[in-house]
Amino acid sequence: MRRIGEDVRLIPSSGGLATGLRGWHQESEGVWVGWPGEVHRLTAPQRSKLEERFSQERLAPVYLSSDEIQRYYDGFSNGVLWPLFHYLLDRIPLDASNWDAYRQVNEKFADAVVHVSRRDDMIWVHDYQLMLLPALLRDRLPEARIGFFLHTPFPSSEIFRLLPWRQEVLRGVLGADLVGFHTRAYLRHFVNSVVHIDGHEVDVDRVQVDGREVRLGAFPMGVDVEAFTALAEDRRVIEEVAAIRRQAGDNRILLGVDRLDYTKGIPRRLLAFGRLLERNPELADHVRLIQLAVPTREKVESYKAFRREVEELVGRLNGIYGKVNSVPVHYLRRSVTRRQLVALYRAADVMLVTPLRDGMNLVAKEFVASRVDEDGVLVLSEFAGAATELGEAIVVNPYDINGAAAAINYALSMGASERRTRMRALRRRVVSHDVHRWARTFLERLAHAPWQQRLTGTMNMSSDHLAEIVATLRGSSSLTLFLDYDGSLVPIVATPELALPDAELLSMLRQLSERPSTDVHVVSGRARDTLDEWLGEVPLSLWAEHGLWHRPGPSGKWQITVPVHVDSLAQIRAILEQFSAETPGSRLEEKTASVAWHYRLSDPEFGARQARELRLRLEELLAKLPFELIEGKKVIEVRPRGANKALVVRRVLANSVADPAVLAVGDDTTDDEMFAALPDSSITVAVGLRPRHAKWRVSDPRAVRRLLGELAAQGS
């Protein structure tokens, strides 16, 4: 947005994201949601005219106050997330606050998106400023196809875990159906954080979250090759290139083009250039470094200090190696037009792209796209995402000043044949993987991502659905409830002994049990002693060890439901004890006729690997014994064959006098057995997971309690 006199104009962005999506935006009926810039200085007529233009261009503005910009954008997004994601921990302020502003602005964006969206639209969220938005949209638009792309690096899990709000950010991103990164390395770091911090298991490029399958992928972003090629061949650009070369005389031109940002490695680049001149003083009269530094975030104190550091280094180098009529470093702190930029790209002998860390760095690709003459050398930081694609560049470690200086020297001395061979290979890759292919590939993947998740027939339970279900159950003449415990009535906890029922749950279960013509069954994998201690005083039916044991009420006695062969457990127990000893953090839980190996507190990757190995060992052994293996959430259990929750359902319903309405709630594969055994008329509710046999899904035990609480309240 640009104000010209009394007129207000919308100026198309030249950035890679805007360029890549412009064609798709124009051809589709899509809406672009974003911050339009500061508009508080506009007059009422100008504001009205701007709103009209927004509507014409299908742009949905999210207006932010000065305080929101300062706290959300400068304070948290750029003050905390930006340095963290670029591994520059010393740049993070000691008091990393403003999280509340970040959350509130993400919610503001969610409101704006929901306002312009239909329930099954495709929504693409971009970058670190909006990492909470996918989950916020998932809650409000559960059927939408939501994609998220991160344009910065994603740091290693050891770095990311320093963020106090790490889980909130991960869960925000995992609200998407497809999560994209520039490189496989960033994807791998994200996966490690999901595994180590949030506790999810990842299967190569997909992760199950709240019953959804979230796909992960690497989508290296490109540049608008056609536009850069056209400019590079433009007569005015060619004339400007000739003027730059004439001004340089016999000097070779080194070029750096960066935002004036501390991640871009400008000081170290200058030090490497200084080391080059120190070791090769004769080059001072034959090499010129043009450093274009585009101003950014100039009101932020850390950026002011960084600018001073850069300019002091430039002054020092020019003071040491400069002459009356020339200086080795030409420092330009300004923005330039794209035409001027392409002229610089074409005039340069060597392009220096040496960030300390960068998500992709499109400058490297812009340089290659502009070199229609198939000449020039690219020196590229190994810590830029582009280095994974542009292998024909001279790749350097920007922290190695001596190594970078040697690389620059090699680039300057490289022969024409090698230069052209390298540049042709670089151009083939950049031309074939442009920004339009990047956008098209991501959107095609996103378009297909959610459909497979709808094939199960399981529906998310909304507030309206909950009210209808409660009304249906309340209207029945008799009612039977089958309720799993861990993960359904209480959250899964790291230490199983800590999953005690709270007063609210006990009161609610008592109310349901005392409801007329209502039969309540808690069906759990827990040992009978535990269920007796926790729920023994509530007038309901208890089933322990997945249905192996049954106690009909507080005054009843525990009865075994299937024959057991306890002697056979010794061989099984020995294997589980071995794995428990070899897997730090794991533990055994022994029950009457079953044994479980818990690995929730183990290292996630090692625990998962051990679980796969244990499963293979046990499957071969159990083929000869009257036991079967079941897998839960971070637990492998061996139980007597035939002792399962389906058995519970068949026994209870066979003994029912009337034909009751049935509500069943569970959160893992053992509960899916229960769902499958129930009549089709039953209301089956899966918690978190998306099993084959549940009709409804809720996100967590809190949603289960809302459902049961409504039923208990209406029945009292």
How many domains?
A: 4
Give the strand order of the largest sheet, numbering strands 1, 2, ... along the chain.
17-29-28-27-18-19-20-21-22
Mean pLDDT: 91
Give the structural class. Answer: alpha/beta
Treating each run of at least 4 consecutive H or I residues as one helix, how many helices? 25
Overall form: elongated
CATH class of the largest domain: Alpha Beta
Largest sheet: 9 strands, mixed
Helix content: 40-55%
Radius of gyration: 32 Å
How many beta-strand segments?
Answer: 29
Task: Please state the second-level CATH architecture of the largest domain.
Answer: 3-Layer(aba) Sandwich
The CATH topology assignment of the largest domain is: Rossmann fold
Quote the beta fraction.
Answer: 15-25%
CATH homologous superfamily name of the largest domain? Glycogen Phosphorylase B
Distance between the termini: 60 Å
Low-confidence stretches: 451-456
Short description:
This protein has about 725 residues and is of the alpha/beta class. It is built from 25 helices and 29 strands. α1 (about 15-25) crosses α17 (about 435-450), α3 (about 65-85) crosses α4 (about 100-115) and α23 (about 645-655) runs parallel beside α24.
